[in-house]
Structure formats: structure tokens, C-alpha cells
Amino acid sequence: MDVKNSLQITRSSSCDYDDDGHAKRTGTLRSAVAHIITAVIGSGVLSLAWSTSQLGWIGGPVALLCFAIVTYISSFLMSDCYRNPDPVTGKRNYSYMDAVRVNLGKRRTFLAGFLQFLTLYGTSIAYVITTANSLRAILRSNCYHKEGHQAPCGYGGNLYMMLFGLVQVVMSFIPDLHNMTWVSVVAALMSFTYSFIGLGLGIATVIENGKIMGSITGVPAANIADKIWLIFQALGDIAFAYPYSIILLEIQDTLESPPPENQTMKKASMIAIFITTFFYLCCGCFGYAAFGNATPGNLLTGFGFYEPYWLIDFANACIILHLVGGYQIYSQPIYSAVDRWSSRKFPNSGFVNNFHKLKLPLLPGFKLNLFRFCFRTAYVISTVGFAILFPYFNLVLGVLGAIIFWPLAIYFPVEMHFVLNKVEAWTRKWIVLRTFSFVCFLATIVGLVGSIEGIIREKLS
């Protein structure tokens, strides 16, 4: 009887855990699709109309479709990296860094980690810029409504960047990602809200105009060189809007099995990329159709739209709320990595490891770690400082898109696929994937060079 009871207990408890001893994963195809769409659709969608306007009616949609196909191939390759050595029964890799370390070794893990953290840091800077632009847009929208569209409604951005930084210093008291689910939920809802508002306003403007603006070649430039630089910048902006390879394995780690996680993830990627691409095409094409050569760099802050002013204000308020949470989502992985490193490096330091209980008036009590407070405050100040120095929304997105696109979304997934599947050099698959990687590398280079040239030109002008 005791043996029978113990067997029943063992079976019952094993049902609550997966093969790695972690709590049973319950993610499904539907939840994976939702996670991907939430991660992909963000502030990058606001620059797609401008990118389409630079590429024209043929180049814009074709570029969006090409990046969608490339993103799916990348996600297809990454999905098989979740387990080693077998993609169905092997040991789990819980993150992008884990997969690179297991398949490619420590040296390339260091490179992947550097690029990943550089991307997270750069995205934080972009969010500071975008938040200031949205705050200014609300003030300008109200000013234009009262004084007319030709009124000199100018507002500086530095003060609003510093105010956003102050909010982020307070938000940085949140210990880690596990304590900010509510922030992620609010941020996701806001991103969908302002994206749909931008799309709706674009459609309404096209209907109001009674015609489709734009041309096959896109916005004309003073000379061929300027046109080429603008095309390069547009490709960088589109590259920023698509890839989600940095967090793909984290999403896959939420999926239940059976069916095998890689099969569910591939289906989820296909569905999510199809939905996202349709949405991106609508935003990019309707924005360009509405404004033609006058398409703004940011669809909701560049004042292609003036009325209804209250809807513009609401959309920009949604952007601000999204970015308040989004900044923390992108910063917390850096905070966590620094916390772990400092604890290992200085295990006996009270400054690094001790927590002090604090109770402020009208606020619940909380624990304060002096090292975390100093580092996170310095981190926020540095991102605000860079944003003040380089307040160029589209150009910063272009640089980030180029940094993310080839190394993190193409190179590492392709190299890990070679190792996992023991692909020999100069076989047909090897040649095809090498060619694919090289073409994407060229796209990254032109996007990076074009965006950096634009930043230098803006800074010197």
C-alpha cells in the first residue's frame, strides 16, 4: 500500500514539472503568436510610412516583404536551437546567449552578448527620443488647434528627455522582469492602440484626399548621392521594425510539449509574421498614400495629421505610456546581468550585496540596494545624455536596425544551424545559407552606413 501511494505521488508530482525540473510549461500556439506580435509591433511601426516614401511604391512594399521572408527564415533556424543536440529531445537552451554558448563557444558568446546589450542600450536611447517627441507633439497639437496650422509652435525636447529620465530612475527600483508583468501588459496594450490609430488616420486621410499620393521612385532628392543615402536609411528603419530573434528562445521556453516546441514555434512565427507584415504594409502604404512626398519621419509626431487634435494627443499619450514600460523591459536584462556580475566579483561587499529597508511618506516600504541605485541611475542618465546629443528618431532606428539585423538575426542562427545539423562546407545547403547570410550582411552595411552618414550630416548642419 505504501509503495502504491508513493508511486501515485511520484506520478502526480512529475506531471507538475518538465524534463528539466522547471514548473510545467503551459504556453500554446496562440500565446506564442501573441508574444511575438507584442514584441515586434512597437515604435518602429511609426517610421514605416517614411521608409516607404523613400523607396517608392515598388521598392517600399517589396522591401517590407523581403524583410518578412528573411525574418521567418531566421526564426525557423532559431527555433531548432532551443534544444541540443536534438531539436526535439535535447537539453534546453533558455535564452539566445545559452544557445550561442552551447553551439559556438565562449568567444562568439562574448560577441553576441556585446551586440545584444548594445542593442538593448541603443533601444533605450531611442525610447528617450521618442518620448520627448511625443510630449512635444501633444503640446504642438494643442497649439495648432488654438492658433492655426501655420503658428510657430516650437518646443524644445531636452527638458522632456530629462523628465522621462527622472521617471525611469524611479521605475528602476523595480527589482527585475518577474516583478513587472503589469508594466508589460500596459505597454503592449498601448503599442497596439497607437499603431491602430496611426493606421486609421492614414486610411481616413486617403479617403478625404480622394487620391493616392506618392510615386514609383519615392521622394525626390537633390542629387543621386542624397537619394542613395535616404534609401539606405529607410532599409535600416525597416530592419529595426522586424527581427525578434533576441527573445525568440525566451518565448519558445514558455511552450508546452508535446507537440515539440520547435514545431509550435515555427507555426507561431509564420502566423505572427503574416499578421505583422499585413499590418506593416497597411501602415507604411496608407501613410505614404496619405502624404506622398511630405510623409513625416514619425507618423504621429511629425504632423502629417493635425485633426482631430484630441485623437493625436491620445495616440501620443499611448506612445509615452508604452515607452515608460518599454524602456524598463529593454533595460532590465542589462540591470540583471550587472547585478549578477557584481555579486560574483565582490561577494563580501556590503555596498554591492546589502539591502536596506526604507519607508517614505505615502508610499509602501521597499528595499534599497545602494549599488543598484547608483548603477541604474547612472545608466538612465547616460541614455538621456546620448539622446540629447543625437535626437534623430529615424536615424537612430536605422543604426539600431543595422546592428540587430545581420549579426543577431542572421549570422548566429545560420552558424548554429550548421553546427546542429553538421552541415559540411560547400554542400548545396551550405552554399545557399552562406549566400543568404552574405546578402543580408550587405543590407546591414548599407543601412548602417546610410544612418551613420545621416547622423553626422544632421549633427554638422
Summarize the structure in words.
With 461 residues, this protein is mainly α. The chain has 15 helices and four strands. A two-stranded antiparallel ribbon has the order 1-2. The chain is globular, with a radius of gyration of 24 Å.
What attributes does this structure have?
461 residues; mainly alpha; two-stranded antiparallel sheet; 4 strands; 72% helix; 2% strand; globular; disordered N terminus
Short description:
The protein has 461 residues and is an all-alpha fold.
Class of secondary structure makeup: mainly alpha
How much is the radius of gyration in Å?
24 Å
- Order of helix and strand elements from N to C terminus: HHHEEHHHHHHHHHEEHHH
Query: Are there runs of 5+ residues with pLDDT below 50, and where?
Result: 1-14
Strand order of the largest sheet: 1-2
Question: Can you tell me the overall shape?
Answer: globular
Please report the distance between the alpha carbons of the first and last residues.
Answer: 85 Å
Number of DSSP E strands: 4
Measured by DSSP, the beta-strand proportion falls in under 5%
Main β sheet profile: 2 strands, antiparallel
* Structure annotation, total helices: 15
- The overall pLDDT, averaged over residues, is 81
Helix coverage percent: over 70%
